[in-house]
Amino acid sequence: MVERLSFYLERNSPLHRLNPTTKLVVAFTLILVAFLGRGLFLPSLIFLLILAPLSFLGQVGREFLRTTLNLLLPLFAFLFVMQSLFYPGGKTVLFGFWIFAVKLEGVRFAFLTATRVLVMVSSFLLLLLTTHPGVLLLDLTQRGLPASVAYILASTLQIIPQMQAKAATILDAQRSRGLDTSGSLGRRIRALLPLVGPLVFGSLVDVEERAIAIEARGFRSSRPKTSLVEIEDRPLERALRWLCLLAFILALGSHLWP
Amino acid sequence: MAVIVIKNLTYTYPTMDHPALREVSLEVEAGEFVAIIGPNGAGKSTLCYTLAGFVPHFFKGELQGDVYVAGQDIRHVRLEDWVLKVGLVFQNPFNQISGAKFTVYEEIAFGLENIGVPREEMKRRVEEVMALTGIADLADRSPYALSGGQQQRVALASILVMQPEVLVLDEPTSQLDPIGSREVFQVIRQLAHQGVTIVMAEHKVEWIAQYADRVIALAEGEIIASGQPAEVLTDPRLPEYGIGISRYTAVARQAAEEGLWPPHQRLPVTLEEAAAGFRAIEETDYARLR
Amino acid sequence: MRVCVENVHFEYPGGVKALRGVSLIIEPGERVAIVGQNGAGKTTLVKHLNGLLRPTQGQVIIGDWDTSQVEVHRLAQRVGYVFQNPDDQLFCRTVAEEVAFGPRNLGYAPERVHQLVEEALYLAELTDKAEINPYDLSPSWRKMVALASVIAMDTPIVIFDEPTTGQDARTIRRIEHMIEALRQRGKTILTITHDIDFCAENFERVVVMGQGQVLADGPKERILGMVEVLAQTYVEPPQLTRLGMQLGFETTVCTPAQFLETLRRRLGHYRANGLGRSEN
Amino acid sequence: MKLVDSIKKDFNTMTLVLIPVAIAINVVIGQIVVLLRLPVYLDSIGTVLVGAICGPWAGALTGTLSNIIWGLLIDPNAFPWFPVALFIGFVSGWCAHFGLFRTWWGVVITGFLVAITAALVSTPIAVYLYGGITASGSSFITAFLLQTGRDLVSAVLSTNFLVEPVDKIATALLAYAIIRGLSRRYLMRFPRAENVTPKKA
């Protein structure tokens, strides 16, 4: 069970101080370039030359590498085995055993897919490791994200650990009433309702009170809202974001070029 | 001057057959602290929701009679404006945390952001109210990482910061341990001294006796008694209606049945009254014999 | 069935030491209340009694079973545990089904389940509500359903976690009747409670906990008068005990009956002798 | 009523507060299913529930944000799959709009339609981003179909058609069971309660 709000780690690094939108734009650009750009080694170079060094600049290098590997190693292992054996366009057989044959095209395809996914996951991860979700939401709200969407995301992040704790209590309460949660498949299916029922009904009953509570705080007020905190945005960062747009156009161009 | 005026209020929730409140009439003066007692299901929460405007605007249903707060008719206002007039704090501290904010400081400011208070004023009001409720040291904590008593004070602060004319509290201490309850009661007593009008539904009779100016007893949607705490809380009919009374009252009543408490002396509600009463009995007895 | 807690230590995965050497023997049929501030280790302790937690050091023995050797759903035959919030366990469409869930899990024969359910519903005053959906009942009645659903398991030991929190006088009365009925059936009853007056009036033995240890343990007439010990864990003596102290009673009184008896004795004493009390 | 107005009406305060709870239900039930080692996901019960009682747009938002939350909290691999979740919420909302949430067999049809949509939407994502092979057990089926000479897209699509219906029909039925368990008084607070309550005579 997860006991944190997000991947965020508190540090005092230049990367942490960047405006969240800048980080978001950079992350998206890197992903798009990795998927649109040409060259077998482009995504892996993006990871090695940009993302990995940035993670150390952000003082989260170790967690960055460890979490990336944890999330992706099983997928990569699977991907390489399956694609090198079953890739539809595979012709050049590298070596074979029993009824299987490992093909070069499959290995190349697996490598490219794996490194692209690597860039996608690790870019987001770097953003999340160095950005408090509250700050990200605040900045996006100031740039026009509807307050209701920001409310939903923020409160979901905070409700989930509470619901997990509630689920653990329910599990304890039902086991105390003799419920067996290990046993055969039939038994485990029967255990689902006693565990899920109280969780769902209990939290749905709370919805009414929570709605009253936020209405009592003027959530539905028609007056223009103000904000307690203002997120900093520097001209340099704005320039960086335009640069990202340029990189994206270049990558798109290379993708569409015959 | 009466801030709250309720005349012949009868209210029925949608899909319900029986009214939750029947012919309730009530006036509350500015700066008064009124406590509402009654068994669960007597209509205490409904009365609180009515004062705060959620009946009828949120719950719909059928409302008869008049409800005025600060001269305005509840039926002709919009809920989003009404909540600035009447603040509502209720039982479960956890459900009152908005979830929209990640620190206590921001959580308290949430309401002010929603109604468009300028930043500087917002900070001043938030800090003021945190000092008043004794939670200044929690400013940077996550509202979800607090104890029930602390959360309830955050909930109270989040409402107070909006500066309502009337504060309605629906059993604010029922989920709290004795320490948490005391923390909340102390803040509320201080507010009453500062002139905030307070209506509070509560089971804890000993505290009510100490702090409230007036007590109203509800049963099955009707007001069955109203008056000074000492008078209402010793009303012999309360146990019949399932309303809890203080142990001091109960034991003195039993003593009176045995002739160990003077028949015409009012029954005690607090520890001090009980101690004084029984001590006097022992002393008269002692004096008589000497 | 005897409960034997031997020098139990418990540390949560985060490194918080919740219990630091607790020893306790509870004889069959005792009624024990565990009091103490939040975080004193009360809940951690009782979760050891039905195996939800297992000691990092020491032993918990229920009858002849070591809890670390038996699965929770089997320990449920011996220890019933009513959680604080009824909404953490209710899921059936009717009250009767909800109450039958526990006894069915324990594998009792249908006739016995039927009989136990009827009896539990009767004790909880729910007989006329048997076919109602628990979520259509008020929170107070849901609490009674949760109580009935554990009582129906007919375990020799029953644990109540904060039974009176948020309940009105009438519901507390119902819970008291239920405890009395269980006492008559010879059950061992344990409760964790902040409601010290409820503790004084319905239990005979009090265990005071603070910082993961037992600070005091004994008959309530001895423990509830120990103002300093109780204060260490932010507990005040019951209302009538405090009144007795203010009046200079020689013994600690816990219940109205005890209070009145002492009062009568003192008054009778003056009436008989005209002395026996210091001048002030 | 204009579309924008009708969407606004769907997003009342109850809906806004329900959505976070629904997303949390998705995540936590998903984890309970793993704990019980059941052969399904059941991680969109909350999304279907919101779709049914708050309308297709609220359902779509719940699905989308569910994936964003899953990405923020557990695994960024979830982000690109958000369109699948979006359509699960949207389709179940429309099915409820046409009265399919009043009977159990209607709900089975809903589950089936949701499954078809999910299969169609997830195929291009799986093919383009992951080359058709993801880390789930169903990729073995894909590999088998590839071996029999099918092309990548049809192999992935067939796999999804085989796998999705069981999970989505179970999901829809559980969401239906939850709705049945809620009182009418409670359901009435939600904007599309009439979708799931018996029609008035």
Number of strands of chain C: 10
Rg over C-alpha atoms of chain C, rounded to the nearest angstrom: 21 Å
Unreliable segments of chain A (pLDDT under 50, ≥5 consecutive)? none
- Counted by DSSP, the helix tally of chain C is 11
Task: Please bin the fraction of helical residues of chain A.
Answer: over 70%
Beta content of chain A = under 5%
Oligomeric status: heterotetramer
Note the beta-strand portion of chain C: 15-25%
| Record field, number of beta strands of chain A | 2
Structure explained in plain terms:
The complex is a heterotetramer of chains A (258), B (290), C (280) and D (201). Chain A has 258 residues and is mainly α. Chain A is built from nine helices and two strands, in the order ααααββααααα. Chain A has helices at residues 14-17, 20-36, 42-57, 61-86, 104-130, 133-142, 147-176, 185-215, 235-256, and strands at residues 93-97, 100-103. Chain A is flat, with a radius of gyration of 24 Å. Chain B is of the alpha/beta class and 290 residues long. Chain B is 40% helix and 21% strand. Chain B is built from twelve helices and ten strands. Chain B has a six-stranded mixed beta sheet with strand order 6-7-8-3-9-10, with helices on both faces. In chain B, α5 crosses α6 and α7 (148-160) packs parallel to α8. Chain B starts with a strand and ends with a helix. The longest helix of chain C has 18 residues, at 256-273. Chain C is built from eleven helices and ten strands. Helix content of chain C is 39%, strand content 21%. In chain C, the strands form two sheets. Chain C has a six-stranded mixed beta sheet with strand order 6-7-8-3-9-10, with helices on both faces. Chain D contains nine helices and no strands. Chain D is globular.
What would a concise description of this structure say?
Chain C has 280 residues and is an alpha/beta fold.
Q: How are the SSEs placed, and which strands pair?
A:
The complex is a heterotetramer of chains A (258), B (290), C (280) and D (201).
Chain A: H1 14-17, H2 20-36, H3 42-57, H4 61-86, E1 93-97, E2 100-103, H5 104-130, H6 133-142, H7 147-176, H8 185-215, H9 235-256
Antiparallel strand pairs in A: 1-2
Helix pairs in contact in A: 2-5, 2-9, 3-4, 3-5, 4-5, 6-7, 7-8
Chain C: E1 3-11, E2 17-26, E3 31-35, H1 42-49, E4 57-62, E5 65-66, H2 72-75, E6 79-82, H3 95-105, H4 110-123, H5 139-151, E7 157-161, H6 169-184, E8 188-192, H7 196-202, E9 205-210, E10 213-219, H8 220-223, H9 227-232, H10 239-246, H11 256-273
Helix pairs in contact in C: 3-4, 3-5, 4-5
Chain D: H1 3-10, H2 13-35, H3 45-54, H4 56-73, H5 82-97, H6 104-130, H7 139-147, H8 152-181, H9 184-187
Helix pairs in contact in D: 2-3, 2-4, 3-4, 3-5, 3-8, 4-5, 5-6, 6-8, 7-8
